[in-house]
Write a structure and sequence with these properties.
mainly alpha, Receptor-associated Protein, 12 helices, 0% strand
Length: 304
């Protein structure tokens, strides 16, 4: 029986690799079919992917709708979801469902003898960690998107200056910039298109621009919105104001780059001390230490 264990392990590993390969190949074929459908202009239905996704979303939404919620936390989570581009009406319920599912799954994984010996205190700690991790991941996604918007803002301002100086109005210039940046900076382009949709729906320009600053949560976008609001209020030249603001923004980007370069030396201290220096010490001092031991303690060497 013991001799059959390696054979069973090999068969199990082979089946696992084959299952993963079939899954990856089926997903790759589905992606190719979807892209061909987009090129041709016809919709390609993927038989298994959409029903599974809908079933999981419905289950998470049902679980999240039963979770008690704090009114003070609701506003912050909704804003964070909007900043991370999760803007559906059911996004908040799905997020609470994910949080509860991860927390309960972590608790059951350590409270039952599935992985290790059951430990109640460790399971409670895993429950708390699983409850916090989805919020941390959501904040990370929002910060990444804000960083992408911040990187594309300089290009958007350049195109906006060119469009306004060419004779377009501010609303048409925002629409044109959103169309031009849809490939290079899709996050910022989506935000600008949403501003144009709000203007078409009848919202005032000031309100639409302030919603842009609130949705993104980027300080550079907030300063741009404040400048545009003041320009619209006092009737000054939009092109001249945009040009001055563009120069100011580039100065701030250069200062941020210089600040990041200045922090590099401090950030390199920890990898050097904990990863590189020990290896250097072993290579340089190790042979000398062995030689000292053999010279100063000959009796111990003879005893061996």
């Amino acid at each position: 029986m013991i001799m059959l264990l390696p054979l069973l392990g090999f068969v199990f590993a082979s089946l696992l690799v084959a299952a993963v390969g079939l899954h990856v190949s089926s997903r790759g074929a589905a992606v190719v079919e979807r892209r061909l459908g987009e090129v041709v202009g016809t919709a390609v239905l993927v038989p298994d992917e959409e029903p599974r996704r809908d079933t999981a979303m419905k289950l998470l939404k049902r679980v999240g709708s039963k979770v008690p919620r704090s009114p003070a936390e609701m506003g912050k989570l909704r804003l964070r979801l909007v900043q991370a581009w999760f803007r559906g009406s059911e996004a908040l319920a799905v997020f609470f469902g994910i949080r509860v599912t991860v927390a309960v799954g972590a608790f059951l994984l350590l409270a039952t003898p599935v992985v290790m010996h059951p430990n109640l205190m460790l399971a409670i700690g895993a429950f708390g960690l699983g409850y916090v991790l989805p919020g941390i991941a959501l904040a990370r996604l929002a910060k990444r998107r804000q960083h992408r918007i911040r990187l594309g803002l300089a290009d958007a301002l350049d195109l906006l200056v060119v469009s306004v100086e060419a004779g377009l109005g501010l609303d048409q210039a925002l629409l044109r910039v959103g169309e031009e940046l849809s490939f290079a900076h899709p996050d910022l382009a989506d935000e600008l298109k949403l501003v144009n949709l709000e203007l078409r729906a009848g919202k005032a320009r000031v309100e639409a621009l302030r919603n842009l600053a609130e949705r993104t949560g980027v300080d550079d976008v907030a300063s741009l919105v404040a400048m545009l609001v003041q320009t619209d209020k006092f009737g000054t030249s939009v092109a001249q104001s945009l040009r001055v603001h563009c120069e100011t923004l580039r100065t701030k980007r250069r200062q941020r780059a210089e600040e990041a370069a200045a922090k590099t030396g401090v950030k390199m201290v920890f990898p050097l001390v904990f990863c590189i220096f020990p290896a250097i010490w072993v290579v340089t001092i190790g042979p000398a230490a062995i030689k000292f031991v053999t010279v100063l303690f000959p009796m111990a060497e003879r005893g061996r």
